Amino acid sequence: MIKPNIPETNLKRIVIVGGGFAGITLAKKLIKLDYQIVMIDKNNYHQFQPLLYQVATGGLEPGSIAYPLRKIFPSHKNIHIRLAEVKGIDTISQHLETSIGHLNYDYLVIATGAVTNFFGNANMEKYAFGMKSVAEALDLRSIILQNFEEALLIEDEEKRDLLMNIVIVGGGATGVEVAGAISEMKRYVLPKDFPELDFTKMNIYLIESNERVLSAMSVESSTKAKKYLENMGIQVFTDTRVLDYDGETVTIKDRPSIKAAVLLWAAGIKGAVPTGFNTEVITRGNRIKCNQYNQVDGFENIFAIGDVAFITTSETPNGHPQVAPVGMQQADNLSNNFDRLLKNKPLVAFKYFDKGSMATVGRNKAVVEMSILKFGGFIAWLAWMFVHLMSIVGFRNRLAILMTWSYNYFRYDQALRLIIRPFERKKKFN
Amino acid sequence: MIKPNIPETNLKRIVIVGGGFAGITLAKKLIKLDYQIVMIDKNNYHQFQPLLYQVATGGLEPGSIAYPLRKIFPSHKNIHIRLAEVKGIDTISQHLETSIGHLNYDYLVIATGAVTNFFGNANMEKYAFGMKSVAEALDLRSIILQNFEEALLIEDEEKRDLLMNIVIVGGGATGVEVAGAISEMKRYVLPKDFPELDFTKMNIYLIESNERVLSAMSVESSTKAKKYLENMGIQVFTDTRVLDYDGETVTIKDRPSIKAAVLLWAAGIKGAVPTGFNTEVITRGNRIKCNQYNQVDGFENIFAIGDVAFITTSETPNGHPQVAPVGMQQADNLSNNFDRLLKNKPLVAFKYFDKGSMATVGRNKAVVEMSILKFGGFIAWLAWMFVHLMSIVGFRNRLAILMTWSYNYFRYDQALRLIIRPFERKKKFN
Questions:
Q1: Got the DSSP string for A273-298?
Q2: pLDDT tens digits, residue range B132-170?
Q3: Smallest Cβ distance to B74: which of A75, A135, A192?
Q4: A46-93 pLDDT tens trace
Q5: What pLDDT was estimated at residue A413?
Q6: Which of A40, A144, A406, A417 to mutate to test the interface with B (most CBs of B within 10 A)?
Q7: Are residues B70 and A192, on separate chains, in Cβ contact within 8 Å?
Q8: Superfamily of the domain at B12-42+84-116+270-342
Q9: Which one of A100, A419, A430 has the shortest CB-CB distance to B43?
Q10: pLDDT above 70 covers what percent of chain A?
Q11: Would the CB atoms of A193 and B68 count as touching at under 8 Å?
């Protein structure tokens, strides 16, 4: 029999589900207050999702963007971390059913983030790659390299070409950034590794259903990003809807289909609502409806923060953007409210302060928007690096990334082209 | 249909099987000569086995000790690297059957190294961990961390204790080094990560069937190493034979059995002879019998080098030690002989120059022997680090390891405590 084995104390227990940006920001503040904190996550590490694409393209080690949860709270007696998944929630008796047994709570915070949304397309779910976890990023890295290894072995020209093609669906920050990184592999790395292949045959497609890439940013930044991408040889299709994918042929609305052995789906996410959560409070994007205190609709002691939370205000009728700063600010506000609860003070409403947004396209190229300030190019690229470096948890990881970036920049070399665990492709071409 | 797709040229083709120390040392020299080189390996990277134990214990990233084979020979037109495994060898028509099809050779070099030898114990093979590959090292890292996570969930004291115990079988360099590294995790890292567990309950056993650890070194060094290990709290049993392991109980000859959820088997290796190789030339330790030119018994155009090769001389009646320097020196000699073949000169016999041996036990502690010079302690530890750092392939990896070691040394922290892909244990204790 296993069970969570959390000691019973006089303190009220706050159970936090999820060790992402929102979850760890909250926990770091709460351990200073008189609560007992329990954090559960299915992984033993926090992952820095904005740089997953660099793991996928051989630029960074997984260990540079993942950080052990326990290392965040060394020797701390007041927080109990458990590797577990939620299987059910009983809001009457106030407990979770989890993969490690029954877990009581006084307060529950759902900070489970978001997962890839294939919008119900079973083929896409089977054949496309997502990029929301370190394991997925490593799979993508492996399959890209495996495809080139396999292309060497194939005489049939059409089949060889399709092994070299990569389609990225979704022109948000992830899609733009990964397209740029793959284009740099094509330019600087792959021809040296595979001198026997003809890289003029390799095509990188970025397909966006909106009329522009980076549609959350200004028209100016979108235009700039699209120009950067096209100058790097990426075929950018906007206003274009991908209909289906069978592991080989990408079917596109009102356009000829494309053959490609890799399709990366970066065209949507949905809230990762835990199993057993009351479906009545789920709203658009599979997010959990909350009031302005991040309290889940109908509950005083259950909260949701981060990508999974949905708060409508007059300024955010469709909820807040699903980005790290929102989750971290909600965590800050919620920790303050937990403090106020101890002091019997009324709760304070969440207010989002938008610091801006940014995306990088490749060496020396990025677009940045900070309130009325909009800029691109080299300075934007430096700003992008600085902000990402500073957001990484842990001195060691910051240093490791800085070293690796410097190396990659000066050597034009994403060195980590390792297939440690080969990915078993669902479709064979030989 | 896939096939190796190697162009036919006027040059004689040398097929090298295996990209370990011997294989890459040979290939680096041969690409300068008038041969066509084909290298096949089942991985797309070279791995630095002497530091695998640091990957297993969270000290180093896999990417620091693995190096893409293609990166060793960038843009080189005269070497063809293929991911493939040998399935059969036809010495009459001079071709290999491989996982990617039929491959002709003029000369064949077997440099396939060695794998863990469980000496036919099926239980051991099923439940014990080996440590001869990056994937195995990552599995070991995961299971050690998973066991502590699970120990938190178990109330039964005996079962909890067994999850914390680790048995290492084999007191050679690998066994000694991994025991030291685990002991440092126990001392500096795990108690901070798991303040809820009682680490006086964690036992590390090092069991050696010989009468001393590091039996390839002098009695003096053995004694010193054993003292280091015992001072670090490791229970060292020499002259002790492990008989069996069922995933929970380690049965030992003439001693009480030990309960432990992890058993690392570092007590023997055997030559990794490719499938289909003529069994008549296989000798002790599953190695391939060669003459002093590394020619396989009975063949003029088939060679074996490195751990898989077995050459008896009056000085080495049991073959050469299975260490990297032997393989690299054999590769050097063989490349010279390939040059002589082109010039119709007679072959030169291999002669091993023993530079000495070394093993580290932990922070500031190592033993080193270089001909008549024997020393231990801090200077030996610095020498150990220097030699290993200089033997690593690639500037980037050298830099990454130096940085990581400095960090680990000053912070007392093996930071990479990540369970990226959980290991499915064959035995459950709950």
A1: PPTT--GGGEEGGGEEEB-TTSBBTT
A2: 999 999 999 999 999 999 999 999 999 999 999 999 999
A3: A192
A4: 999 999 999 999 999 999 999 999 999 998 999 999 999 999 999 999
A5: 85
A6: A417
A7: yes
A8: FAD/NAD(P)-binding domain (3.50.50.60)
A9: A419
A10: 100
A11: yes
Sign of CA dihedral B319, B324, B330, B333: negative
Q: Give the whole-angstrom CA distance, residue A186 versus residue A189.
A: 6
The model's confidence at residue B371, banded by pLDDT at 50, 70 and 90, is confident
* Residue B427 near residue B127, CB atoms below 8 Å: yes
CATH fold of A12-116+270-342, please?
FAD/NAD(P)-binding domain (3.50.50)
Within chain A, how many helices (H) and strands (E) appear? 13, 25
Task: Give A81 to chain B, closest Cα distance, Å.
Answer: 9
Please say if B149 is a catalytic residue. no
Residue B425: what pLDDT? Answer: 82
Is the per-residue pLDDT at A276 higher than 90?
no
- What is the CATH T-level fold of the domain A122-267, as seen in this structure? FAD/NAD(P)-binding domain (3.50.50)
Q: How far is B131 from chain A (nearest CA, A)?
A: 14
Question: Please, are residues B415 and A396 in contact by the beta-carbon 8 Å criterion?
Answer: yes
Which residue ranges does chain B devote to CATH 3.50.50.100?
Answer: 122-267
Q: What is the pLDDT of residue A326?
A: 97
Range(s) within chain B of domains with CATH label 3.50.50.60 = 12-42+84-116+270-342
Region B306-314: what's the mean pLDDT? 95
Q: Which residue is associated with the tokens 């055997």?
A: B270
Q: How many CB pairs under 8 A join A and B?
A: 155
Q: Is the pLDDT of residue B430 over 80?
A: no
Assigned token pair, A99: 């993969």
> Model pTM?
0.95
